[in-house]
Amino acid sequence: MYQHFPGDNFTAPWLQQSAFPDRDPAHLAGAVEGYKWLVGVNMTNTQGLFVDGYHIDSRKANNRECDLRDEMVYTYNQGVILTGLRGLWSVTGAPSYLTDGHRLVQAVINATGWDFARSQPVDQFRSGSLPPWRGIGRAGILEERCDASGTCSQDSQTFKAIFFHHLTAFCKPIETSNAYSADRSLTAALHKDACAEYVAWTRHNAAAALGTRVDGEFGMWWGPGLFGNVVANKNSDGIDHDAANTTDYRDEGTPVDRIWGWEPWSPGSEGVPRRQGAATIQENTNVGEKVLSRIRIRTLAGRPSKEGNDPNARGRGRTIETQMGGLAVLRAYWVLSRSSEPNK
């Protein structure tokens, strides 16, 4: 808000006194403190990726604290941090914000299974088999956890586009001229060199995305063209979907259990909890204790393919959201490759 909020333009005298001005120092202070909080609250995993956040652990009686970390990783969460960091650098001039941003970009690229030194995937693979899952992708290709199984919701189909949109904005060249200091010129040069290191990876993803087109329409999962159109499901995609505290609520909704509570939410429900029936209690005679069964919410994602062996024909198929993802990665490659040229 400090950087872009234009200020209110009320004409009534009693409203003018309560209007927010543009470049309000309180907005800048809030942004700086907000990022300090984000860094200090333990929101990144061992790969340096931002997890989805904390939620209320309903196993604790009368608990109202967001005290249980959800280890789920989505691509868009990484992207939105990047433009925030670019904005903080723009208004403070502190190079540490750009350093943190580049550290995050490199963490994402590493977690797709990309070798910076050789500008190629770290894993060798053959057609008809899936390379190993590396945390946020495989074989150097950015991927949502729902991609390979064809179970992405409308929300998740937008996420890779969001990431590449913010990466493009973060890597925008820094303006320099005689009006700026030598320190800014040095920062601009280092920033340009760092972003140039991402061009090969972005090109790799753009080429993979182009390989999914049917009648000009991009698919959601960009890997099949490289992997021989292998069709995977949640049992064979190499991802531990049952990992502790990893709930893919963006695609599957929230479960009904003692952690998430008894008011389920499903993608497309406009944020309003809907009752899908009561949780059932089963008697486990082996251990003599009651076990709450998890109730999953069925979504459109996951319906069987009716179009042969095209992995991207499953689930929601090719949509305006998947088209947006393809265009975003193409734009990112074009902008980054142009910006890395001499005298750009």
UniProtKB/TrEMBL annotation:
Gene3D superfamilies attached to this UniProt entry: 1.50.10.20
Gene Ontology terms: biological process: carbohydrate metabolic process
Matching InterPro entries: 6-hairpin_glycosidase_sf, Glyco_hydro_76, MUG_Protein
Pfam families: Glyco_hydro_76 (PF03663)
The protein's name: Uncharacterized protein
Organism: Emericellopsis cladophorae
